[in-house]
Design a protein that fits this description.
Blueprint: H1 14-19, H2 35-40, H3 58-66, H4 71-87
Length: about 90
């Protein structure tokens, strides 16, 4: 039987936030991004990933899926770290 995933909703009052004017939003803890930042900014697009089929032990796949959304990305990141450790 498939386990039912229960997700809790956001505690943010999105309707209230949408009604707020920009001047009402406290951004005092966010540094201003001036022209210097944008002059040096670089757009980095992620490399496209290849679709493959891989066989994993059931307990390995279940463990990653229990971590929630993005489990395939986590598997990819762990494999990248392994490759880096082996080639360094």
């Amino acid at each position: 039987m498939k386990k039912k995933v229960i997700r809790t909703g956001s505690k943010t009052d999105w309707a209230k936030l949408a009604r707020m004017k920009d001047s009402e939003i406290d951004t005092s803890d966010i540094a201003e991004l001036g022209p210097e930042f944008f002059r040096n900014a670089v757009l980095r697009m992620p490399k496209p990933k290849k679709m493959v089929s891989i066989r994993l032990d059931d307990e390995v796949l279940k463990w990653f899926k229990r971590q929630g959304r993005g489990y395939q990305t986590k598997i990819n990141e762990i494999l990248k770290l392994y490759v880096k450790a082996k080639t360094a």
